[in-house]
């Protein structure tokens, strides 16, 4: 499609209203749409906007943000002006709706992506994607910046909770489910991010550059992004970092050769926030913003620049056209992709979609879906002497800084970009305290919190807590992290604040049976805390329904079924050793390094017995051959439960690269009544025992060596 007057006005620019320049801000002093500012951007042919402008402002006049209806009116005002000024071409609006449309007030908030992974339930993750897209569309927003397809690598990294964990196959399956759910309405574009290698972080500090081999780039990150593209994802976003010394935003190798040629992605590609400008002021490879624009346009296939204010990208593009007419063909490719996206979403026919969804925002079925995800993503890590579940008439003392704080259950990208603290701003929220009250009332439990999130507490508060704990048979301590996002979550030590650990140990010292609940976005080191308590539950960041889910698990109304989607490290020197580490990664004793809890670990209130494992053939001679692996699982306990059956594969010797000890290749979550059995069958194909050949620029090539392979069931099985 051509552009009026020959001006490439659909070579778009993205802006997030930061409030740093009132003349450019899309809202005025009374927090209404600033139509004059929108008109100026429309005249500059800015064709895309994102985020609610209230997500970085905190509480204003008693409110923490906007409702879906308010946001829809805001988006509609921008769309009206944009189309009037640009010959009927619609703008496209996007948002970071990464766990529900959680930057608005009245939608249902789901757990973070790490919770979806911990559930090992693709149906729940699909449903989260579907509801998220429907609710964003209700706000007039057809573009969702998710899912995150990065692979967790360094648990210090503050965006760990935004991933589907450390396993490429798990991330691929969950990414596929999310994208299919989001795009099931045919009016929403999902966005795979952050292309590529972003999380291969050596320090844990966000935005640090990475050094990575082609083998690891393709075999760690390739599966999830390939799954996203195969699922039909319409857009993608690059990352903040440099890979092997080259900023991604100017990398021909990553944003042309690998993305467009090898992965054959033809969707629209946007930068992450401010990345073109960052070539000058962060990466320091460009001397001016004009040069930065030139590098990105000439060297990559980026279609859109995401910035906060101003039109430097637009201006730089016009200047480049004046200098180099040969750039026009390159720009036409981007214009084609952007307009194609708008046509795919039907924006020319209905520039403000989703009105019919307004009445569905926050409905009871959505609440039930979010609650089910919270239930199935909680991981019972430790349960000494089967202390859980506890009886409803038992005396319980509840304490901890996260025991009555829904915001701490949610993490970042919740109402505000950096997250919030408190309960009142949540439409459907339930803290652990509120969840327990709903189950047992106030007669059999007491509550007092003397602990701050930084680990500090006074002697008086500790003494009060110890007195209450001494009067209770059980003490539930809810601890973990405060909300953060991106760089604000950088830490220098993965250990939980020492004061949090000491507070728990002080309570345990008086004889009460301590149950620890963790709300955290990454696996914080616990030291010797597990040795002093009876039970540990990791809720990750289940968000507003998490308190209810945890209470149900504590009292046995729900049987826990979550599994760790990430290794939980034990020692600070071993935090970057995933379960799928190479066979040569060993500790001083010559043995594999022992974590606190392994990938896939998760206890239940019942027992599952595995038997009759069979394999259809042990000799494969063709790449078209397949292998069926079956195993019978029996619930040998006394209560119903859900079990995730996992199949791992390893190649003990591999010439192309040192092999991994094992890798997840298949999983299935099943539900069994007490005494019931089910046979689970997995089909393995050549893709499962192959690896991507470490070449970029020659197409994706899966290779399988003539070798022995070992098949194993259950995460605790030693394959080596």
UniProtKB/TrEMBL annotation:
Superkingdom in the source lineage: Eukaryota
GO molecular function: beta-glucosidase activity
Plastid among keywords: no
Family annotation (Pfam families): Fn3-like (PF14310), Glyco_hydro_3 (PF00933), Glyco_hydro_3_C (PF01915)
Region feature (Disordered): 1-20
Keyword ATP-binding: no
E.C. number: 3.2.1.21
Reactions that this protein is recorded to catalyse: Hydrolysis of terminal, non-reducing beta-D-glucosyl residues with release of beta-D-glucose
Ranges for domain Fibronectin type III-like: 643-717
Gene3D superfamilies according to UniProt: Glycoside hydrolase family 3 C-terminal domain, Glycoside hydrolase, family 3, N-terminal domain, Immunoglobulins
Record-level GO BP terms: glucan catabolic process
EC class (word): hydrolase
InterPro entries found in the cross-reference section: Cellulose_Degrad_GH3 (IPR051915), Fn3-like (IPR026891), GH (IPR017853), Glyco_hydro_3_C (IPR002772), Glyco_hydro_3_C_sf (IPR036881), Glyco_hydro_3_N (IPR001764), Glyco_hydro_3_N_sf (IPR036962), Ig-like_fold (IPR013783)
Alphabetical UniProt keywords: Glycosidase, Hydrolase, Signal
Family: Belongs to the glycosyl hydrolase 3 family.
Protein name per UniProt: beta-glucosidase
Species per Swiss-Prot/TrEMBL record: Phytophthora nicotianae (Potato buckeye rot agent)
């Amino acid at each position: 499609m051509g552009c009026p007057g020959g001006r490439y006005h659909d070579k778009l620019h993205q802006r997030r209203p930061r409030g740093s320049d009132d003349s450019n801000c899309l809202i005025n002093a009374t927090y209404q749409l600033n139509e004059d500012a929108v008109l100026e951007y429309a005249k500059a042919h800015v064709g895309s906007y994102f985020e609610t402008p209230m997500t970085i402002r905190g509480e204003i006049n008693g409110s923490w943000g906007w409702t879906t209806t308010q946001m829809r009116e805001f988006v509609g005002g921008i769309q009206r002006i944009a189309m009037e000024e640009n010959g009927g071409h619609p703008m496209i609006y996007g948002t970071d709706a990464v766990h529900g449309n959680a930057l608005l007030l009245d939608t249902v908030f789901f757990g973070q992506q790490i919770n979806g992974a911990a559930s090992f339930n693709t149906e729940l993750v699909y449903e989260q994607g579907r509801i998220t897209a429907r609710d964003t569309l209700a706000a007039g927003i057809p573009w969702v910046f998710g899912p995150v397809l990065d692979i967790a690598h360094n648990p210090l990294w503050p965006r760990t909770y935004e991933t589907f964990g450390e396993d490429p196959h798990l991330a691929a399956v969950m990414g596929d489910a999310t994208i299919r759910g989001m795009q099931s309405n045919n009016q929403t574009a999902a966005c795979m991010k952050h292309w590529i290698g972003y999380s291969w972080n050596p320090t844990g500090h966000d935005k640090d550059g990475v050094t990575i081999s082609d083998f690891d780039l393709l075999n760690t990150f390739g599966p999830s992004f390939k799954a996203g593209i195969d699922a039909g994802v319409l857009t993608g976003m690059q990352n903040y970092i440099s890979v092997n010394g080259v900023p991604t935003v100017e990398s021909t190798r990553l944003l042309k050769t690998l993305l467009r040629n090898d992965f054959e992605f033809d969707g629209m590609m946007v930068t992450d926030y401010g990345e073109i400008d960052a070539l000058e002021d962060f990466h320091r490879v460009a001397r001016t913003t004009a040069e930065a624009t030139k590098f990105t346009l000439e060297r990559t296939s980026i279609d859109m620049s995401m910035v906060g204010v101003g039109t430097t990208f637009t201006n730089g593009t016009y200047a480049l056209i004046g200098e180099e007419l040969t750039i026009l063909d390159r720009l036409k490719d981007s214009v084609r992709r952007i307009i194609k996206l708008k046509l795919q979403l039907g924006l020319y026919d209905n520039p403000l979609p989703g009105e019919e969804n307004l009445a569905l925002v926050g409905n009871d079925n959505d609440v039930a879906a979010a609650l089910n995800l919270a239930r199935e993503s909680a991981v019972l890590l430790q349960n000494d002497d089967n202390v859980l579940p506890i009886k409803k008439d038992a005396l319980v003392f509840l304490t901890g800084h996260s025991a009555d704080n829904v915001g701490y259950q949610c993490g970042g990208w919740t109402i505000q970009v950096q997250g919030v603290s408190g309960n009142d701003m949540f439409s459907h929220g339930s803290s652990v305290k509120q969840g327990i009250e709903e189950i047992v009332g106030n007669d059999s439990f007491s509550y007092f919190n003397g602990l701050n999130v930084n680990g500090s507490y006074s002697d008086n508060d500790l003494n009060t807590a110890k007195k209450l704990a001494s009067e209770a048979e059980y003490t539930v301590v809810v601890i973990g992290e405060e909300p953060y996002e991106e760089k604000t979550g950088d830490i220098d030590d993965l250990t939980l604040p020492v004061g949090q650990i000491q507070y728990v140990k002080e309570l345990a010292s008086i004889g009460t049976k301590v149950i620890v609940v963790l709300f955290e976005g990454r696996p914080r080191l616990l030291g010797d805390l597990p040795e002093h308590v009876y039970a540990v539950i990791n809720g990750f960041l289940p968000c507003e329904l998490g308190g209810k889910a945890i209470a149900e698990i504590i009292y046995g109304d729900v049987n826990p079924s979550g599994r760790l989607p990430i290794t939980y490290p034990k020692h600070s020197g071993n935090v970057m050793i995933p379960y799928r580490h190479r066979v040569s990664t060993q500790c001083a004793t010559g043995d594999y390094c022992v974590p606190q809890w392994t990938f896939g670990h998760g206890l239940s209130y019942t027992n599952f017995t595995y038997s009759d494992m069979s394999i259809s053939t042990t000799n494969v001679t063709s790449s078209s051959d397949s292998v069926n692996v079956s195993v019978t699982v029996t619930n040998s306990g006394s209560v119903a439960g859900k079990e995730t059956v996992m199949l791992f594969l390893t190649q003990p010797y591999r010439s192309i690269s040192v092999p991994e000890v094992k890798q997840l290749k298949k999983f299935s979550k099943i539900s069994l009544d007490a005494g019931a059995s089910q046979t689970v069958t997995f089909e393995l194909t050549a893709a499962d025992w192959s690896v991507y050949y470490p070449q970029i620029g020659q197409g994706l090539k899966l290779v399988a060596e003539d070798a022995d392979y070992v098949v194993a069931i259950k995460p605790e099985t030693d394959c080596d």
